[in-house]
Amino acid sequence: MKKIEISRFWYYSIIALIIIVSYFHFSVLYYPFLDTTSAITILMTPGFSIPGDLYFWGQSFYGSLIPFLAQLLCITYRFPPAMAVAVVQYIILTAGFLALSTLFKSRFFRLLLCLLWFFPSWHSIGHLTSVIGIQMSLFVIGIYLINRFRSAYLQGTKLLWLSAACIAFIGSIWISDLSFISLILLILFLLIGTREFELFSSPLKALKEKSMHLTLLTILFWILAGIGFLWYAKSHASKIISLYHPLLNSPSEMLVSVKMLLLSFFHLLIFASGNVIESIYAWLSLITLPWIVVTSKLNNQPGDPLLKGKWFFFFGLNFIVLLFCLLASHWVSANGSDRRYFSIVWISLWITVLLFSEVSVTSNPSLRKKILLILIFIGSVSSIFPLYIPVNVPSRNTVLGEFKSLETAGIIGASSSVYLSSCVDPNHIKATPHDKEYIRNFNLVNDVFKQNRLYLMKDEWLKSFPDTIDQFGFLLQRRGEPFHKAGYELCRYEKIINRKSYGISDMKYQGHLVEDTNAYSRQVAMITPDFDRSKHFIYGPFINLAKGKYTVLFRLMTNRDLSIDNVAVLDISANFGKEILASRTIRLCDFARNHHLEEFDVPFETTKDYEGVEFRVMFLGGVNLSFDRVVLLER
């Protein structure tokens, strides 16, 4: 039977069609289920700054390569941020596919890879909609460059390819620490039967070669450069400590992660996942993949080294090790073992299957190809099935476009929704989570309160719109009636007074409470000389404070006399007590009246944003001292 080959024209035409159709389904411009991570990627783009934005806000795990490159398109070609992110995302994904396709000889298997890469099954869609695909793209680009290094003849050319490969690997590790595990596996894989790394098998012989000296020096240089860059980026990244410690799950936590993964697969098998096509795909995979392995045989030639066509060993090992690492990761389990983390595992598994199928022999290769084509095609259909069935779901970017009618506005809500409201037009719509949530980027708070119009968003944080509400030290008053935008309910608010009071219930203190009808809360906190004077009498409330001019009023009371003895030190500290912004010492004679609550002002100015701001009173002894409240005034 005559062997049928795919012509160059049809090959590249189909490849281009697959990539274009994928772009119009899964890029941030068109994907209907855009998530918070994608929204933050878009928000980081217009005002990207170094070093603070080298990692995603609030993390030191995901490197922000896409916002870094996308901002260049925004600056140079005036791309809208969402479009810039979409274009950069697919350029990198396409480069990753082209690099990986060089490991295949047959155009048929390259087409299968393209379909798998740009239309993975529904549970692996995180490969396209998160940074997982970008991480893997850079890693396989590094593999391609390593192969070019190994096949080059001129020493200068070899070192250029090697340097480019090292940069790609550093970039992949920057995007995700998980790439470091894959890089270790790759190094071990390359050590098998390769002349370039003879140093490890025959050190004396290798060290005699000048070319080996230059190779090792180049590798050492990029190792040091990579460590330096990653240390610099991580040292300037703020992160949510609770999600990073411990690094690994306990045995019981790992067991929970395994159960969640098996439960997810079980739901697929019993058609309970909500995606019928993917359930069919799961059953067919469970049946046909073992059949392919059993009926295929490797055709080993005498003297055929491992690297001559058996990259499937590496990707198979990568699949097993990464699966174990993800199940053991506390970060993954703390984020609910989200399926997007495991997309790199399933993609690695399928690359293994395709590479194995190409280099192995079987009694009916045509049947095997047809089965693989049908299987991968069904998986691809499962990725777009929820976008059209039971209804055609519009792109999230189109739906959120309703927010553009607000023109310039500031929005406060829960992080799960408020970032999305801003990502359609981050240059004009500013948004931040409310002050009871972790604030990833305090600059957003400043931007929100600079807007003429402020809106609160009703969600799991806000069940109704109160007449007044305190946010970030500002008192906001409701203006008008609630309305709907893009499926969310909002209401307009205005800053009515730049004054915020903190009573005893808002502060920490030592001493005891005493009734006082003149006090803010009808009680004062009193400390007597027998209390521990090495600790602060009053401290708190650990708020975030934007750049600006302020005055803090401390309302205190004591047994006044004409003595010049110091009774207390008032201060304002930031970063949870690590930095003193202002202070004032109070003497007994500074009180105008005996047993009367009086206010003592401490003015100060901040030149940047601060977290963990406290208003503290250090009691120096001698007499009783009472505290009523502190008042923060913005000047």
Task: Explain what the structure shows.
The chain has helices spanning about 10-25, 35-45, 65-75, 80-100, 105-120, 125-130, 130-150, 155-175, 180-190, 205, 210-235, 250-270, 275-295, 310-330, 330-335, 340-360, 365-390, 395-400, 415-425, 440-450; strands spanning about 295-300, 360, 410-415, 430-435, 455-460, 470, 475-485, 490-495, 500, 510, 510-515, 525, 540, 540-545, 550-560, 565-575, 580-585, 600-605, 610-620, 625-635. By secondary structure, it is α+β, with helices and mostly antiparallel strands. It has 3 domains: about 10-390, no CATH class; about 400-495, no CATH class; about 500-635, Sandwich (Jelly Rolls). The strands form 5 sheets. Strands 4-3-5-8-7-6 form a 6-stranded mixed sheet, with helices on both faces. Strands 9, 11, 12, 15, 18 and 20 form a 6-stranded antiparallel sheet that branches. Helix 19 (about 415-425) links the parallel strand 3 and strand 4. Helix 5 packs antiparallel against helix 16. It starts with 7 loop residues before the first helix and ends with a strand. The relative contact order is 0.08.
What's the short version?
With 635 residues, the protein is α+β, with helices and mostly antiparallel strands.
Radius of gyration: 31 Å
The coarse overall form would be elongated
The strand count comes to: 20
Number of helices: 20
Fraction in beta strands:
15-25%
Give the end-to-end Cα distance, rounded to a whole number of Å.
87 Å
Main sheet properties:
6 strands, mixed
Mean pLDDT: 89
Poorly predicted regions: 196-201
Q: How many discrete domains?
A: 3
